[in-house]
Each structure stands twice: as C-alpha cells, then as structure tokens.
Amino acid sequence: MTDLLPKRFLFRFALPCRYRDPLWTPEGANLDERYRLVHLAELDAAPSAADVRVAWSESGLACTLIVEGKRQAPWCRESRAEDSDGLQLWIDTRDVHTIHRASRFCHSFLFLPGGGGSRLDQPVALWVPINRARENPRPVRPEELGVRSRRLRGGYQLDAFVPAACLTGFDPQEHPRLGFTYAVYDRELGRQTFSVDDSMPYQEDPSLWATLELVGQ
Question: Which of 6, 159, 165, 187 sits CB 3.0–4.6 Å from 148 for a disulfide?
C-alpha cells in the first residue's frame, strides 16, 4: 500500500521559518542559505533543481527561489500564468490540518520571473483563488505583492513578498505556525513540490500542507 502513496504523505512535517528584519527591500529579499527549506521530495527520490528559502517578520512572509541547471529561458506569460514557469505558494495562517477544503485563512499566490510588461520581461505576482474553497480571503491586487527577478547563469533568482495585510489572520504572536506548501513549475526541468507530489490534491486540500514554525524573533 505504501508504494501507492508518496512517502512524504506518511509524515507531518514542521520546519523552522527564521525571522528577518528588514524582510523586503527595493532589491528584493535575497535570502541566504540560512533560510533554505529542506527538500522533502528527496524522500520520494525526486530530483531537485530549485532552492527555496523562506523568512518572516511582522511585515509578512518573503521567499527566494533559485533555479539552476537550465539551458532554456523561463517560459512565462501573464495571460497564461498558471501554465508558466514560476513559483506558487499556499499559506494557511491558522495551520489547520483537519479540513480538506480551504477556509478564508488559506491563500495562494503565484510569482513568475517574467511574462509581464509589453516585452514580457517583467516579473509577475498574482493572488490565485483556491479551487473548492469553502470561503476565500480578501482578493489581493497584484500591486500589493512584491516580486523581483534576475537572470543567473543557467537559471534565475525570483524574490517574492506577501505583506501581512494580504494574509487574512496573520498574527505571529497568537498563531506562530503557518500551514505551507509550494510548487515550482518549469517546462524544461519539471515540477518540484514540497509536502506531497502531484498524485495528491495539495492545490486545494490544506490537510496536505506542511507547517512553518515562525522562530527567531
């Protein structure tokens, strides 16, 4: 039976998310290796082409994505954001693992390293409604989010920022644990997921998300 399920499904993961202040600058987040998340997909012998780093402060949550090993430029189109290369985050500010449909405390955001602007070379940040949600949080306008990107040799770096005002229920003092998962999309290198793989409906089921423990203030 266990061979039919991803090994990650058999565990409930809680990982530290370190504090940083300032969390976001005009240059982005630029989180260093201290903020790197463990690559849980190694339990399923899945390859890793992406380095994902996360930090928090009272101002919100920031993420740095570094993708390496590419021979092609990222494929990004704001008009086809969910088909594009980039990073999608899912965040539950109540860290509830007993529900299978998202509440108003559950959020999803999509960040692309390009695809915006008249030349399609500007990064993109979007709030994405969660399928089958019982209740959605307040919709977030793209300009409320932070996103920066830069090309690297054989890849790119993408910095993303979700301000506290865009996270319904975000209260690190009262609720220092967040439900969290991510997916890195790449047409060339494949998809990298965090808590479970694509055989499970993590895109809409908060019970399948891991936990970030907000530490280090």
Answer: 159
- Give backbone dihedrals phi and psi of 123, rounded to 5 degrees, phi first: -65, 160
- CA dihedral sign of residues 82, 87, 90, 93: negative
Instruction: Give me the residues paired with residue 109 across strands.
Output: 89, 127
Residue range 90-124, pLDDT digits in tens: 999 999 999 999 999 999 999 999 999 999 999 99
- Phi, psi values for residue 143, rounded to 5°: -70, -10
What is the token pair recorded at 67?
């993708």
Task: Give residue 12's pLDDT band: very low, low, confident or very high (50, 70, 90).
Answer: confident
| Strand 14-19 relative to strand 50-57, pairing | parallel
Rounded Cα–Cα distance for residues 197 and 15 (Å): 18
